[in-house]
Specification:
Elements (H helix, E strand, L loop, with lengths): L2 E8 L9 H16 L3 E5 L1 H6 L1 H11 L3 E5 L10 E5 L2 E5 L4 H19 L5 E9 L6 H9 L4 E7 L14 E3 L4 E6 L7 H8 L4 H18 L2 E7 H5 L6 H12 L3 E2 L2 H8 L4
Parallel strand pairs: 1-2, 1-10, 1-11, 2-3, 6-7, 7-9
Antiparallel strand pairs: 4-5, 8-9
């Protein structure tokens, strides 16, 4: 059965994008409650600390409908990204193993302190080709900190988009960490596709994602769709584009899940 896992990278802060996070929470929560469709928030630890009351309210109002997982503490890239696209080449440096461990641990501690539970899922800032498959040192860190599923594989071999939908979830067994499940984020991240199609006009964006949903449904695949808090409401404060996509997924008979729900259903818990 085709499955739709919508995951937002909740990374905005008051100093970088004033007011964006609160507006996003105020739009996303009622949307998902109204449609009764689950999603995952991969939350940056700093963002959580800036608005603890809002996230507690979200947890209490939405329950398991919106699952809260982590996006490191400072949105630190875990790997170096060597991006090649229409703009040319660009390099974004990742943290050292020690920096990555400290950032992930600090985010987990913040979630436990503020929300009462430690996350078992991790979104990888920027996203990477192959996820963490070529970094057993990072997998050891992730596993040791209690992370059991990740969404880090979101780029193709050019460290750009789109990532083929045929890139389906897998365990890091070959790397020696069968207790960690990778749930790749396929297709285009929302901001990149909107930029390519024209941010001012949401219709081409919605058409493309509906076309992608048709493809995924025909192939009976699982799609972990990547969105961002700031991009989801940019020029669309009521998130009408997201609503249209969710309603179309529902029409096609997709099973909507959180990433944690998918992990638990997969039987890969250890």
């Amino acid at each position: 059965m085709q499955k739709f896992l919508l995951g937002y990278n909740v990374e905005s802060s008051d100093w970088s994008r004033p007011g964006v996070l609160v507006r996003f929470l105020g739009a996303a929560a009622p949307l998902h409650r109204e449609l009764a469709l689950p999603c995952t928030f991969f939350v940056r630890g700093q963002s959580l600390e800036e608005h603890p009351d809002e996230f507690r309210r979200l947890r209490d109002d939405c329950g398991e409908l919106i699952d809260l997982q982590q996006f490191t503490y400072s949105a630190l890239p875990l790997k170096t990204v060597c991006q090649e696209n229409y703009r040319g080449r660009a390099v974004f440096h990742g943290g050292t193993p020690r920096q990555c461990r400290d950032d992930i641990a600090r985010a987990s501690e913040a979630m436990e302190r503020i929300l009462g539970s430690r996350p078992t899922g991790l979104g990888g800032p920027l996203g990477y080709y192959r996820g963490l498959a070529d970094r057993p040192d990072l997998l050891e860190i992730v596993s040791g900190l209690g992370i059991r599923f990740t969404r880090t594989f979101t780029r193709n071999s050019r460290d750009w988009s789109p990532l083929a939908f045929e890139t389906q979830p897998f365990r890091y067994s070959a790397e020696g960490f069968p207790d960690v499940l990778e749930i790749p984020g396929q297709g285009w991240p929302d901001w990149a596709l909107k930029e390519a199609l024209g941010q001012a006009n949401p219709e081409p964006y919605v058409r493309q994602l509906c076309k992608d949903l048709d493809y995924v449904a025909a192939k009976q695949l699982t799609w972990s769709c990547v969105q961002h808090d700031w991009s989801a409401i940019q020029g669309d404060p009521e998130m009408r584009s997201t609503r249209a996509i969710l309603e179309y997924a529902k029409k096609l008979g997709f099973q909507a899940q959180t990433h944690r729900g998918y992990f638990e259903e997969s039987g890969l818990q250890t």
